[in-house]
Design brief:
The complex is a heterotrimer of chains A (about 70), B (about 425) and C (about 350). Chain B is of the alpha/beta class and about 425 residues long. Chain B contains 6 helices and 25 strands. In chain B, the strands form 6 sheets. In chain B, strands 5, 6, 9, 10, 11 and 23 form a 6-stranded mixed sheet that branches. Chain B has a 6-stranded mixed sheet with strand order 16-18-13-19-20-21, sandwiched between helices. Chain B has a 4-stranded mixed sheet with strand order 7-8-1-12. Chain C is α/β, with parallel strands linked by helices and about 350 residues long. Chain C is built from 11 helices and 14 strands. Classes of the chains: A alpha/beta (about 70), B alpha/beta (about 425), C alpha/beta (about 350).
Chain lengths: ~70, ~425, ~350
């Protein structure tokens, strides 16, 4: 089944072979940003998950970063 | 501009009422040290000052940092002036666990082979903070306490005549054009609570990369603020005694032209990593060098920083060698690094940190032994009823140090 | 005899002098003393005594590798029970050269011997022998030529290496003529890492052989799975390596090199909170994840998206482990297990979050 990898260090994700990659915010808070307001954070989080959903729905032949 | 190191060769350390050094014996006034440290920081609840000597059946757990007593006594410019150094002794901070990656030091037995600190007397500060002190304050309190203790002990020896005076000169640009020109790229982590470092007083998140006089390391300009896993955390002691800088200065003008040092950081955001690597490579290129050596701290995402630096240097026409440890699984059967690049063809390995060791029970322990099971490199079953341990090298302070301090290496069999 | 290394030699029907291909189905046979190349082993090493030889047909083993190896072990145990003097210090198998079936049977027997008796075993193969893919890591294999022309050299190698194994010495492929097992092994070098790094750079600058201590590997790739046509009618599962677990870490997942992953219920939870969950990952500053675990496992927005119909269903359990110093091999194993579990319950897509 397809898996979308949401992670910060894309080169590592590529190296270990993830095929659908969504770059996240930062290591300690991949789907958040403590410097933003809670509402903005939720927006960011939603946006990343939506990208992941798009990735899951996309046909790919090789590794792709969805950003 | 010279840096003068006034060195005392400590032979033994004892606790006593008259602090100072005489005939190679360093006397530490435990009560005075304790009172001094407690009085300057309200967050501290208690400090137990003790000694751990080489060969003793002593174990120190949840080690936060190790630092050498060094005190700059003259000179405003970083990298030049006078520094008092006490050799063959170190201060160790330990105590209740802050997070997960503090480490173990064994003064005897098989564990002693994997840490340089088993070979010198240690002044141990088992330190607890008050209830309600935040984790950030806990970390900061211990860091500042350890540094202050080391300086306090160094200060007690100011009146004594040093055993040796070492002048560390570093003329640049160097005269001989036939020697290979090389630079040192010093990676320091900057990843948040217990994953930070301090360079010239500033958190390594800010103001890096920079080109700097390599001798600043010898005056405690780089301070560890992290516990990234005991095995490859660069303790403050490691920074103060950076073996790459020492060796590069030793051969400067004879075997090579040590053109300079670039300190770079390793952040948590990909874009920051990329920017830092690019900027660091540019600073190295400005030194017009033929080659560069890159050192590292931590593992996992810092593997990416290392690869970015190496790739950037090679693409800029600068030949690079780099030092890294490995996480190749218990039997060494797995892939050692999280990131790789074909340009990284000159790698020194300082060991597989997943190797497991059996450590016997020790008669004396500083720090909370039960917390061993929570350390990175420890397991729920690590601590046996008889006090013996099974842990990975990962849990031993300095075991796979990526400044290349020790002799541990790894090969394919 | 005191000081002698007692060896049991394992060979196939051809080298055992029992016949060719037509005898390929021969069941394990026992012979006292050496047979075939076993005599040459004794000539090469006076301190080695080949006390017994087991001969098995290549096809017999190829068709039932595990049972065949077990039968060989049983045969050996029976003979030792009869005569304790037969108890070996070392088992030698082959050489198998480039022969695939023979290589597989030598490999299976050597591995079983190591596991069952805890004594060393050594064999010899050509580097192209397909059995190496399976047995390289578990065994000590002397590098041999492709065919029987290399018999003497292969046996010399097996004798040399066999002696070291019995003495408990480390084997170094560079100097001992063995095929690298692909395992990383620690040792203490003569000089520090810093000295070696500078030396290595000097060699590189002089254009000499670099002698890297860690050659860059090539990671294996998985072909991309087919996409889900429409996530709005699909079941999604969440998995994280960021160490998000229920408060209290009920399964005691380790903060590094995790030996397990956890499976936790999301039922009744609209979002994660500082009260309900925590991060036990030792490799990053967990302050932000502990404040709001949705920053690592985005349950809140996933619930929203399910309500809005953008996601069909959320599988009500999530999987978590700690991806800190966890070796790639172990992580692969967890991934496979988790995937199997998810496929079993009809999950069609996964979002994996990492820190």
């Amino acid at each position: 089944m397809p898996a979308a990898h949401i992670c910060s260090i894309v080169p590592i994700s590529k190296t270990v072979g993830a095929n659908r990659i969504v770059p996240s915010v930062a290591i300690p808070h991949p789907l958040g940003d403590p410097e933003k307001s809670p509402e903005e954070e939720t927006q960011i989080r939603r946006g990343l998950v939506e990208k992941a959903l798009t990735a899951l729905e996309t046909e790919i032949a090789e590794q792709r970063v969805f950003d | 501009m010279t840096l003068t190191l006034q060195r005392h060769a400590v032979q033994t350390v004892q606790l006593g009422d008259t602090p100072g050094i005489a005939d190679g014996t360093l006397t530490v006034d435990a009560e005075a040290v304790r009172d001094h440290l407690m009085s300057r920081d309200e967050r501290l609840a208690d400090i137990r000052v003790g000694l751990a000597l080489p060969g003793e059946a002593t174990r120190i757990v949840c080690v936060k940092d190790v630092m050498q007593p060094r005190l700059k006594t003259a000179g405003a410019e970083p990298g030049s002036g006078t520094v008092r150094v006490l050799d063959n002794v170190a201060v160790v901070t330990c105590g209740p666990i802050v997070a997960f990656q503090e480490g173990v030091i064994d003064m005897s037995g098989p564990g002693a082979d994997y840490t340089p600190f088993s070979r010198m007397p240690l002044v141990v500060l088992e330190t607890a903070v008050g209830a309600g002190v935040s984790r950030q304050d806990h970390e900061e309190a211990l860091r500042s306490t350890g540094l202050e203790a080391a300086a306090f002990i160094a200060r007690s020896c100011i009146e004594a005549e040093p055993d040796a005076i070492e002048t560390v000169a570093w003329e640049t640009p160097n005269a001989d054009p036939d020697l290979p020109r090389i630079a040192y790229v010093y990676m320091v982590l900057s990843q948040g609570l217990l994953h930070d470092n301090y360079v010239l007083g500033r958190n390594a998140k800010d103001g890096l990369p920079i080109t700097a006089d390599p001798r600043i390391a010898f005056e405690t300009a780089i301070v560890s603020g992290n516990c990234v896993s005991a095995c490859d955390k660069n303790t403050t002691f490691h920074h103060q005694n950076n073996p790459l800088i020492a060796e590069l200065l030793r051969g400067h003008g004879a075997n090579w032209d040590f053109a300079g040092m670039v300190i770079s950081n390793a952040s948590t955001r990909l874009s920051q990593k990329q920017r830092a690597a690019e900027a660091a490579v540019k600073l190295v290129a400005d030194l017009k060098v033929d080659g560069a050596i890159v050192s590292k701290e931590g593992f996992g995402n810092p593997d990416s920083d290392l690869m970015m630096l190496v790739r950037g240097l090679e693409q800029a026409g600068i030949k690079a060698s780099a030092i890294t440890d490995e996480f190749a699984g218990i039997e060494g059967e797995s892939q050692s690094l999280a990131d790789v690049t074909p340009e990284a063809d000159a790698i020194v390995s300082v060991g597989n940190a997943n190797e497991r060791v059996q450590l016997p029970a020790m008669a004396t322990t500083f720090g909370p032994l039960p917390d061993v099971v929570r350390l990175a490199g420890g397991y729920p079953y690590s601590l046996r009823e008889d006090g013996s341990l099974e842990v990975e090298l990962q849990a031993i302070i300095g075991s796979t140090n990526q400044l290349g301090f020790s002799r541990l290496s790894c090969r394919e069999v | 005899m005191p000081g002698k290394i007692r060896v049991i030699h394992y060979i196939n029907q051809f080298f055992g002098g029992l016949g060719g291909e037509e005898k390929g189905s021969l069941a394990p046979q026992w012979f006292i003393g050496p047979r075939g190349p076993g005599s040459l082993i004794q000539q090469l090493a006076p301190e080695i005594e080949v006390v017994g030889t087991i001969v098995v047909g290549d096809n017999y083993m190829a068709e039932h590798l595990d049972e065949g190896a077990a039968k060989v072990i049983a045969l050996l145990e029976t003979e030792i029970a009869r005569d304790k003097g037969l108890r070996p210090n070392l088992v030698m198998a082959g050489p198998a050269f480039a022969a695939g079936r023979y290589g597989m049977s030598c490999g299976a027997v050597c591995q079983s011997v190591q596991e069952t008796f805890g004594i060393p075993a050594v064999t010899a193969m050509h580097p192209d022998n397909p059995a190496l893919d399976i047995y390289r890591q578990a065994l000590t294999v002397v590098r041999a030529e492709a065919d029987v022309m290399g018999m003497r050299a292969a046996l010399e190698g097996m004798v040399r290496v066999g002696r070291k194994l019995v003495a408990g010495e480390d084997i170094d492929p560079q100097t001992d003529g063995t095929i690298p097992r692909g395992l990383r092994q620690n040792y203490f070098a003569e000089t520090t890492g810093a000295e070696r790094a500078i030396e290595m750079l000097m060699r590189k600058l002089r254009g000499e052989e670099i002698g890297t201590e860690y050659p860059m590997p090539v990671f294996s790739r998985v072909p991309p799975a087919a996409p889900v046509a429409d996530m709005g009618s699909a079941t999604l599962a969440l998995v994280t390596s960021g160490g998000i677990v229920p408060r209290g870490n009920p399964d005691r997942i380790e903060s590094a090199n995790a030996s397990k992953y956890g499976e936790y219920s999301l039922e009744g939870l609209d979002r994660l909170s500082a009260d309900s969950h925590q991060s036990v990952h030792g490799g990053y500053d967990t302050t932000y994840a502990n404040e709001d675990p949705n920053r690592v496992l985005p349950l809140d927005v996933v619930r929203d998206l399910v309500r809005e119909g953008r996601i069909g269903r959320l599988h009500e359990t999530y999987f978590a482990t700690v991806g800190n110093a966890t070796s790639v091999k172990r992580a692969e194993a967890y991934g496979r297990e988790i995937a199997a579990k998810l496929v079993n319950v009809g999950v069609q897509a996964v979002i994996l979050t990492s820190t």
